[in-house]
Design a protein that fits this description.
By secondary structure, this protein is α/β, with parallel strands linked by helices. The chain is globular and about 55 Å long. The chain is 37% helix and 18% strand.
Length: 396
């Protein structure tokens, strides 16, 4: 049995701060994906919703919430939560249902209505919750976490503030071409450098915003696609949702205590590089076969880290790859041609789905002014708190 499933439809609600319910954003994205797929809502046999912890009870049962909003029609539902990896887990669940023969066509939806400022842990005192602890014990907000990653790259690899700024310049130029992006304006390196320091060494324009937005996919079996006359669809070939392997070698918030790497030699790849490695192995490809990548640039420095974790270059060579223009449009391996989080901001349960939407449009050749010429293979990458891997390989 082939492991491929077809991507029949992709849809998004534009990112921004709209002040409305996440249900509205997700429903709009779902209807756009259904229209793109030329599939009626009544034909959907399963709905997989990526949860948002900020949406109250409806957010915790996103699958049923979106099914109700679209109109009860008997589809089975699943709701998943894995922080920033929620969307990839939703795609993995939908794909598993299709390959198991439980459904021919599945709707995947994620949406969020984010708070102003940085994300906080869910309410209440929970002294066994590492996310709560990092705020209360360390005062380690997400921007603090991003700043520590940046400092590590500067210390270990010699990256500079100018390198970080160039990531923002590249992504903002791409986002200016994307009608779904929240920020659609080119930015100069000087503007990045002049923006306020948020978490040294990172400036305001180095760090992604928190946003409202929604994204959806219509996935189907290859046989269903053929019956609909779609003979060469974009296909999802691999989904990686791996967890870290003992011993962890890089202290990764919210794991705030000393880890086992202090006394045990590392054997194998780091957690982040293992995410992509699992995707490559399942897809039967290597990084040299990629046409483009969409990665989770929570900060400019974190995008550089993904270059190495995806195997696009050797460890410590990410800034060199950036300076050469290899990751810019027209380069050897364009990264974040959507504009990335630099242009969108975080709408947590939607973002990993939005990454697959971008791959879909790129592999179809319908991405307009930001189109990567001849795109045939794409990969996404992000990670969720508490050891949630997230990577999807799509091919055409």
């Amino acid at each position: 049995m082939t492991g491929d499933v077809a991507v029949l439809g992709a849809g998004m609600h534009p990112w921004g701060k709209w002040g409305r319910s996440f249900v509205e954003y997700g429903t709009a994205a779902a209807r756009a994906a259904l229209a793109d797929a030329a599939v009626e809502w009544q034909d959907v046999q399963s709905v997989v919703g990526a949860d948002t912890v900020r949406g109250g009870y409806p957010g915790y049962v996103a699958g049923a919430t979106f099914a109700k909003a679209l109109g009860w029609q008997g589809a089975r539902v699943t709701s998943v939560y894995a922080a920033c990896a929620s969307g990839a887990q939703a795609v993995a669940t939908a794909r598993a249902q299709i390959l198991a023969g439980l459904a021919d066509v599945v709707l995947v939806v994620g949406a969020d209505a984010a708070p102003k400022g940085f994300f906080r842990p869910a309410g209440g005192d929970r002294q066994d919750d590492p996310d709560w602890l990092r705020f209360r014990v360390l005062g380690a907000t997400n921007p603090t976490y991003f700043g520590l990653y940046a400092r590590r790259r500067m210390a270990v690899h010699g990256d500079t503030l100018e390198d970080f700024a160039q990531v923002k310049v590249k992504n903002a130029a791409c986002g200016a071409l994307n009608p779904h992006a929240r920020y659609r304006k080119a930015v100069s390196a000087e503007e990045v450098a002049a923006s306020a320091v948020v978490s040294d060494p990172l400036r305001l324009l180095d760090i992604c915003a928190t946003s409202d937005g929604g994204a959806a996919l219509v996935l189907s079996s290859m046989e269903f696609a053929r019956r609909r006359g779609v003979t060469d669809p974009v296909r999802i070939r691999a989904v990686s949702t791996v967890t870290p392997t003992y011993p962890s070698t890089v202290l990764d918030l919210p794991d705030i205590a000393t880890d086992s790497a202090a006394g045990v030699e590392a054997d194998g790849p780091s957690f982040r590089s293992s995410i992509a490695q699992a995707a490559y192995e399942e897809a039967g490809i290597g990084p040299e076969e990629l046409s483009l990548a969409e990665v989770y640039d929570l900060s400019t420095a974190l995008e550089l880290q993904w270059y190495e974790d995806l195997g696009l270059c050797a460890e410590g060579a990410a800034a060199k790859l950036l300076r050469e223009g290899a990751t810019a449009p027209g380069g050897r391996i364009p990264v974040n041609v959507s504009g990335g989080l630099a242009s969108f901001g975080e709408a947590v349960p939607a973002q990993a789905i939005a990454q697959v939407c971008e791959l879909t449009w790129q592999l179809r050749g319908t991405a307009g002014a930001r189109q990567v010429a001849g795109a045939r293979v794409g990969i996404t990458a992000n990670q969720g708190l508490f050891g949630h891997g997230s990577s999807v390989v799509a091919v055409r």
